[in-house]
Amino acid sequence: MKLDRVAVIGGGPGGLYAARLLKLSNPHADIAVYEQSSPDTTFGFGVGLASRTQRNLRQADAASLDAIVARAYSHEMSMQVGESIARLAHGDLLAIARTSLLSVLQEQARDAGVRLEFGERREPADLDVDLVIASDGINSATRTADGRFGADIATGSGLYLWCGTDFALPSAIFVPVTTEHGTFVAHAYPYAPDRSTFLIETDVDTWTRAGFDATTAATDPTDTDEASLRYLEKAFADTLHNHGLIGNRTRWMKFRTVQCRNWSLGNVVLLGDAAHTAHYSIGSGTKLAMEDAIALDAALAAAETVGDALAEYERVRRPAVEHLQQIAVRSEQWWESFPQRMDLPVEQLMVAYMTRAGKVGLERFLESAPDVAWKGIASYGQVAADSEAPIDASRWILARPLEHGDRSFCDRFAPPALREDPSTTVVSVDVESAWNEKATAVVDEARASSTIWLTGSDERDHVLTRLDVAERMMCSTSALVVVEIPTECVPDAVAGLVSARTHLVFVGS
Ligand SMILES: Cc1cc2nc3c(=O)[nH]c(=O)nc-3n(C[C@H](O)[C@H](O)[C@H](O)COP(=O)(O)OP(=O)(O)OC[C@H]3O[C@@H](n4cnc5c(N)ncnc54)[C@H](O)[C@@H]3O)c2cc1C
C-alpha cells in the first residue's frame, strides 16, 4: 500500500521507532513525529533490554539496534537478603539511559528522513493524513478522548518510586530492607558507568506508617518527593555505598495496567503504552512499544488498505501482548507480596523469583544458570550446595522426603488417602487472583485445618494461581498444603516445591 502522509503523536521509543521503520519502508512518504516536550526532556532513568528483544530489533533494523547497543551498559543480576547474595551470571542483560535511547532513536529517525517536531502537542483531529499513530504514552489523550477504544485500567495495590543514583552498581540487584515502618524492596541496575536505576517498592501500610502519604500530597506533580528520597537513602545506605538518590519528577505511584478492547478507530492506531502496559518488573514496556512498531510496519507493507493493515496489526500483536500482560500481572503480584517470602533462603528465593510468573521453568533456569539454580534446589532438598547435581532434577525434587510436624512422607507425592482423612480440608480454588478478597477469604476459611488440599480447574493459569494461593497458606498457617495438578503442570509443581509454594503435590490426570 502507498502511504503519502503519516503523523506520529508522541516521540517516545514506540513513536520514534515506528516513524523510522515506516520511513525506511515508504521513502516517499512524509512522516512527522509530534512531541510535546523538548528533545532532552524525559522521565525516569535507565530501561532494560533483554536478549530476545535485542534479537527482534536486530531482525527489524540492525543499524538502529547497533546504535542502541553502542550506548548501552551490560550487567549481571543478583538477589540479596540480609548478608546472603545469590548471583546470576547472565551476559545478555543490557540497560540504557532513557535519555540516550531517545537520542539514538531521534537520530535514527532523522537519518531515515523523518520530520521531528518538538514542543508540538497534537490530537488526531488536528491531522489531515493517511494514518495517525497515537504513541502518546500511558496517559494517552487519544485513547482517553474516545470511549470506543474500550480502555480498561487496573491499578496495582503496591507503590513504587523510580529514582537513580550516581554510580554503577556492580550488578542488577533485588534487595529488601526492613525499617521500623515495614519492608521496602529495591530493584536496581546499572545503566551507565556513573548511573544506576533505583526503583523502590512498598505496600500501602508501610508507605502510610512512614508518612509518605503526607509527603506525596505535599509534592507538586512536576517536583520530586525529596523527603522520601532522604529516608530511602538511609534505608538503603549499604547497597548505595552511602551515595545519594537522585530524583526526576520522582514520586510514589501505583502501577496501572492498561488494556483496550480496540487498538484502532478509522485511520488512528494506538501503539505502545497508549494501547497496553505491562508491569515494570518484567522490564518489557519499551520492548512492547518497539515490537508494536515492527508489526505495524509489516502489516502496512502487506495490506491493500489502512483499515486492513490496522486489523492485521492488532490480530498479530494482541495475543503476544496479552500473554506478556498476564505474566506481568503475576510478576507484579509476586513483588507486591514479596515480604512474606523473606524467610526463604536466598538461593531458593532466586528460584522463586525466576519462576514467579510461569514464564521461565526450573529446567530452563537450570540450563541457563546451573550453579545458582542448583544451590536453590540443594537448599530445598537439604543437601550441601557442593554435592553433585542429579541428572534428572525434577525427579530428584519430587523424590525428596518431607517431615511436617509429626508426619513423614517418603516423597512429595501426596498419598490419595490423605484427601479422605477427616483432618483434611479440601478446597476448590476458583479465584482470578491469589491476592484478591475472594482468595483471602479462602485462605482465612482454611486457616484452622491441619491439612489443606487444593483442587480446581486443570487449566494452567488456574494451576499457577492455585500454587500462589497454596503459598499464601504455607506462609500464614502451619498446615500441610497439597496442590492437585494435571500431569502437564508437573514442571510448575516442581518449581513450586523448590519455591515453597506447596509441601506436596497430587498428580490428578
Ligand atoms: C517505573 C518504570 C520502570 C520501567 N522500566 C522499564 C524497563 O526497564 N524496560 C522497559 O522496557 N520499559 C520500562 N518501563 C516502561 C517504559 O518506560 C514504557 O513502556 C515506554 O516508555 C513506552 O514507550 P511509548 O513510546 O509507548 O510511550 P512513552 O515513552 O511514554 O512516550 C510517549 C510520548 O508521547 C508524548 N506525548 C503525549 N501526549 C502527546 C501529545 N498529545 N502530543 C505530542 N506528544 C505527546 C510524551 O511527552 C512522551 O514523550 C518502565 C516504566 C516504569 C513506569
Automatic annotation (TrEMBL):
Keywords: Monooxygenase, NAD, Oxidoreductase. The keyword Repressor does not apply. Residues 99-325 form the FAD-binding domain. It holds the Pfam family FAD_binding_3. Coiled coil: none annotated. It comes from Rhodococcoides yunnanense. This is FAD-dependent monooxygenase. One of its GO terms (molecular function) is monooxygenase activity. SUPFAM superfamilies: FAD/NAD(P)-binding domain. InterPro entries: FAD-bd, FAD/NAD-bd_sf, PheA/TfdB_FAD_monoxygenase. PANTHER family: 3-(3-HYDROXY-PHENYL)PROPIONATE/3-HYDROXYCINNAMIC ACID HYDROXYLASE, BLR0106 PROTEIN.
